Fold Bis(5'-adenosyl)-triphosphatase.
Amino acid sequence: MPLILKGGPIHFGPFLVTPQVFHQTPLSIALVNLKPILPGHVLISPRRVVSRVSDLTPPETADLFLTVRRVGRMIERVYGASSLNIAIQDGAEAGQSVPHVHAHVIPRRRRDLSTTDAVYDLLDGEEGDLKRGFEGRERGETLKVDDEERVARGPEEMEAEAAMLAKEMAKEPMD
Ligand code: AMW
């Protein structure tokens, strides 16, 4: 069943992601990832499409991190994790591929990757594309997203995960 959301279409950078959104506040959105590094890897963004953390207003900045905190707590519980990576690549040279501020929230378990810090290489893998994407955009090309090694998920899988996570968010305390 499609997730019904009030308030019209929601964009993540140039992408329409309304069916992938599992939580929203007046200023922030949380969506499932097209190419998660690990199961439960989600993204939190300001609702407004701006590239850099410095573009955010103070209320957007506060709301973004409050949303990261609440969503992170839920993700850790639902995916049976005991830690989280919370990461923002703020600008192309820092590895940002989608020019819309987003915090990665990645649930972590003991020995889930070859090394604990391998997650940074995997995030880094995304950034190669992001840089190419920005450079292409400057040349007037369509924005390319993501490394080609990880497989993009289909809309049905992402919608099902978003519906499951929306239900789990409803169980979270308000604070
Ligand atoms: W960056 O390298 O900009 O810090 O991260 C971009 C993230 O956005 C990656 O995790 C990538 O998988 C994800 N992504 C790219 N396109 C979409 C999309 N259409 N919907 C959801 N996530 C996406």
